[in-house]
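job 3f2a | input accepted
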Amino acid sequence: MRNNKGQSLGLAILTSIVFLILGLMFVNFLTPEISDFRSNLDCTNAANISDGTKLTCLLVDTTVVYWIVIVFSVVIGGITSRLLL
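job 3f2a | predicted structure (85 res):
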């Protein structure tokens, strides 16, 4: 039985690089929306907002970080899936 993992590994790497580029380009579309959301919630004035709004502001601030972690997880998963199967 032949092992054809090496033939599809290059394609998996190229597809993962394309997904990485598209995922990181999407961050540019997220940042203006996050800024608008923060200004609508008045996240800069910490003295006058409630605890629920503070938590919402914290979650909105971490959106870009979570997005980058998700993109890298998918890219690494796409590459390593060809090595394991």
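job 3f2a | The chain has one domain: 5-84.
job 3f2a | closed
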